[in-house]
Amino acid sequence: MSDQSRRKFIKHIGSTAALLGIGQLAALGRENEPVTLLQPEQPFAANDKIRLACVGMGIMGFGDVDTAIKVPGVEFVAAADLYTGHLDRVKEVYGPNIFTTRDYRELLQRKDIDAIIVATPDHWHDTISIAAMEAGKAVYCEKPMVQQVEEGHKVIATQQRTKAVFQVGSQRVSSIALAEARKRYQAGEIGQLNVVEARMDRHSALGAWQYSIPTDASPATVDFDAFLKDTAKVPFDAKRFFRWRNYQAYGTGIPGDLFVHLISGLHFITGSLGPTSIYASGSLSQWKDGRDVPDVVVAIFDYPETKEHPAFQMTLRVNFADGSGGGEYTRLIGTDGVMEIGWNDFKIKKHKLPEAPGYGGWDTFRTFSEKQQAEFVKDYNAHYGGNKGKAVETTSNYAAPAGYDDRLDHFKNFFESMRTGKTVVEDATFGLRAAGPALVTNQSYFSKKMLRWDPVKMRVLA
């Protein structure tokens, strides 16, 4: 493609992207394939100070705070956590003046706190989010938004009643790559969508949630009773506290941790409200460490035809016992091409069928008499002469620039909503439409039944 043709293509598609050679992003395409480098919006200036607190200073808590304070005008002032060591680490990282407490309610009572990050185990998400909105705080709640479907409806009702700024932390929906992917999908570049397939496989102890446990973990350093909340009362167990994802009582297993990312991205790209049927199967294959959730899950989701998209089927798989070493992909397969989505990059491969059907090979043509073969060829050429027999194959690559952080953009959107009243990109309703099918996946797995889901009312059908 000439430079002039490239410029015409970019102008025609209306993209804000700039075209670069493959040498700068070699991982995204074969040699000599161009890559479209997507450009994020210019950072906005801080109009006023936002004082931020975080409940739950584990992996996601520290990661969210580290990202959030990169946004101009955001100041981290307080943290709550049930483990004393996490609070000690907060002061080591962010300074001795950070207010810390084991009781999250102390943060909600403070008038100088504007926003709360909820990065606790899943079974606490709804309670803290609702209490924070009732206290007049903006809320950034980690995914999945809730642990149970009914909890999601309570969060939605609270957001609508209080008018609080509330955003779910599935950051992919703020990615410039997914925004471009949505535009390409809506332009019909892959034809009619018919199948979505995704996998996110791992083969490591940390990837299977066997997180490190501090040597000082004890009833003296951990408020274990508060952690249990309204679940069954059990003796202190450091594994349950620090590896909570392994237990149905506190987490949401593979679907809530990983499927929800894939579902969020799909709904953002296609505009879908969700599937109508869900069936899941799997096993506990390798990580038999006391957990009561599977380490292999495969689920099939049937999406109905709507005005936004045709009917299609989605298959999701996560395998924590993948002896090949793991890997992931998401593929939206249409009649004219496939969109392969990475984390902040994607490619579109097109294989447009020729007008001519072809003949020969594994075909009835070779069973014809010589005379009939000659007549057939003559008739075929009369109908399908020229280039009508050639398939059209193209590949286009798109990527965010090196160092791009979609979670930073997600926080920028959250804080901009606080400052300007702009609609958040992932409100409570979007959050339940993404979390709901993931939660029903768990129900299907444990009940060994296919379940019906109402994507509009967001409820399991009897």
UniProtKB/TrEMBL annotation:
<dbReference type="Pfam" id="PF22725">
    <property type="entry name" value="GFO_IDH_MocA_C3"/>
</dbReference>
<dbReference type="Pfam" id="PF01408">
    <property type="entry name" value="GFO_IDH_MocA"/>
</dbReference>
<keyword id="KW-0560">Oxidoreductase</keyword>
<feature type="domain" description="GFO/IDH/MocA-like oxidoreductase">
    <location>
        <begin position="242"/>
        <end position="339"/>
    </location>
</feature>
<feature type="domain" description="Gfo/Idh/MocA-like oxidoreductase N-terminal">
    <location>
        <begin position="50"/>
        <end position="169"/>
    </location>
</feature>
<protein>
    <submittedName>
        <fullName>Tat (Twin-arginine translocation) pathway signal sequence</fullName>
    </submittedName>
</protein>
<dbReference type="InterPro" id="IPR055170">
    <property type="entry name" value="GFO_IDH_MocA-like_dom"/>
</dbReference>
<dbReference type="InterPro" id="IPR036291">
    <property type="entry name" value="NAD(P)-bd_dom_sf"/>
</dbReference>
<dbReference type="InterPro" id="IPR000683">
    <property type="entry name" value="Gfo/Idh/MocA-like_OxRdtase_N"/>
</dbReference>
<dbReference type="GO" id="GO:0000166">
    <property type="term" value="F:nucleotide binding"/>
</dbReference>
<dbReference type="GO" id="GO:0016491">
    <property type="term" value="F:oxidoreductase activity"/>
</dbReference>
<dbReference type="InterPro" id="IPR050463">
    <property type="entry name" value="Gfo/Idh/MocA_oxidrdct_glycsds"/>
</dbReference>
<dbReference type="InterPro" id="IPR019546">
    <property type="entry name" value="TAT_signal_bac_arc"/>
</dbReference>
<dbReference type="InterPro" id="IPR006311">
    <property type="entry name" value="TAT_signal"/>
</dbReference>
